[in-house]
Amino acid sequence: MAQPLRDPTPPAQACPIAPVVDIVFSRWTTPTLWTLNEYGRLRFVELQRRIGAISPKVLTQRLRQLERDGLVRRTYHPEVPPRVEYEITELGRSLAPLFASLSHWATDHLPEVERARREYDDAARPRA
């Protein structure tokens, strides 16, 4: 029996944007970067309040990852009480056109997606 052909292309090379999607579109990354891009340098509590339903633990984890990726800068001010601020870096700011394109796509196409979902859900319902 013949062996099935294996695709020699590793998954990351098969989709060259996969690493970017993992970095930029992880849960809470996009709202965090968008907020910092829109409002500038923010303290942790201000950032959390502007994002909304994110827990402090998750925001801390996300900010650490974004700092590691070079998309966010953390500045510690040794005052009493200590003050920490976060801001988007130039690398992070370079994503602004991507976010603008996605925003335009959402405005133009989300009604179509919602209509398609309704049609799909209606077709899946058992008929009496």
CATH topology assignment of the domain at 14-94:
Arc Repressor Mutant, subunit A
- What summary fits the major beta sheet? 3 strands, antiparallel
Helicity level, as a percent range? 55-70%
The amount of beta strand, in percent, is 5-15%
Structural class: mainly alpha
List keywords for this structure.
128 residues, mainly alpha, Arc Repressor Mutant, subunit A, three-stranded antiparallel β-sheet, 3 strands, 11% strand, extended
Short summary of the structure?
By secondary structure, the protein is mainly alpha-helical. 59% of the residues lie in helices and 11% in strands. The protein has helices spanning 11-14, 18-24, 29-39, 44-51, 56-68, 90-93, 96-124; strands spanning 42-43, 72-77, 83-88.
Walk me through what this model shows:
With 128 residues, the chain is mainly alpha-helical. It has a domain at 14-94: Orthogonal Bundle (Arc Repressor Mutant, subunit A), CATH 1.10.10.10. The protein has 7 helices and 3 strands. It has helices at residues 11-14, 18-24, 29-39, 44-51, 56-68, 90-93, 96-124; strands at 42-43, 72-77, 83-88. Strands 1-3-2 form a 3-stranded antiparallel β-sheet. A hairpin with a 5-residue loop joins β2 (72-77) and β3.
